[in-house]
Design a protein that fits this description.
With 253 residues, the protein is an alpha/beta fold. It is 38% helix and 15% strand. The protein binds phosphoenolpyruvate (PEP).
């Protein structure tokens, strides 16, 4: 998602399966000039809106919410990374917890999607995150390390950029968010795992975002510890005003 101005923070709006067709134009009009030299903004709409959002995106990056783990073939209902690119996408979310839990995507499937996205020249936004049982049992670090290790497949080093979104499952769409202090600790553990398992050219440069019930009200606390490089936002991102308020609370310039 990197632009020539090299923004060091990212904000991704994941619409999931939301917004009526008539809502797309006004939303894009409201935010299409919002990206700055420091914060890149990506919008991940449902597939049928990709071309329209890309056409109205201005400085924004358009991202797929998912992609196939193959480039073409007999895979009814799937959309390949190359097709996303052809529709104007430059990034794709891979391994979102809803894909993992509702559609049974295993670590192996996620790793293949990651490779396919990189091969097609898309910036992958890899989602990882533990459920509440894992956190309560004190196994967060090991769990995330396993997810990172499983995703570190061949071809990853060829990526121009990889973005990682730490999205604890217990925080997604629940109204319960991580604290800034919790993020500082967990992101430290993620960095250690990246150094251990990720290709050397990405271990340090991979941006780490947080996702999970981010709102304009909790953004300041979440960025206060300086551990994260931005946000992946679901529910609050459906309101362009809230997305812009989160951007403002990130400290734009
Ligand atoms: C998400 O969809 O990745 C997400 C973090 O959703 P929400 O902000 O609604 O928790």
């Amino acid at each position: 998602m990197i632009r020539s101005a090299m923004p060091n923070r990212h904000l991704i709006a994941n619409w999931k399966m939301n917004l009526p067709p008539e809502g797309v134009g006004p939303y894009m009009e409201a935010i299409h000039r919002a990206a700055s030299a420091r914060v890149s903004i990506a919008v991940a709409p449902p597939f049928p809106y990709l071309k329209e959002t890309a056409g109205k995106g201005g400085d924004l990056i358009i991202a797929g919410q998912n992609c196939a783990d193959h480039e073409s073939g007999a895979f009814t209902g799937e959309v390949s990374p190359g097709m996303l690119r052809a529709c104007g996408a430059r990034a794709v979310i891979v391994g979102h917890s809803e894909r993992r839990s509702l559609y049974g995507e295993s670590d192996a499937v996620v790793a293949r999607k990651l490779s396919a996205a990189v091969a097609a020249g898309l910036t992958p936004v890899l989602c990882i995150g533990e459920d509440l049982r894992t956190r309560d049992a004190g196994h967060v670090s090991r769990f995330l390390a396993d997810q990172i290790k499983a995703a570190a497949t061949s071809g990853l080093e060829a990526a121009k950029e990889i973005v990682l979104a730490y999205e604890p499952v217990w925080a997604i769409g629940t109204g319960r968010n991580a604290s800034g202090a919790m993020l500082a600790e967990t992101v430290g553990q993620i960095r250690e795992s990246l150094e251990r398992f990720w290709p050397v050219n990405h271990a340090k440069s991979t941006a780490i975002l947080y996702g999970g019930s981010v709102t304009p009200e909790n953004t300041a606390d979440l960025v206060a510890h300086g551990a994260i490089d931005g946000f992946l936002v679901g529910g609050a991102s459906l309101d362009s005003g809230k997305l812009l308020a989160i951007l403002a609370a990130m400290g734009r310039d």
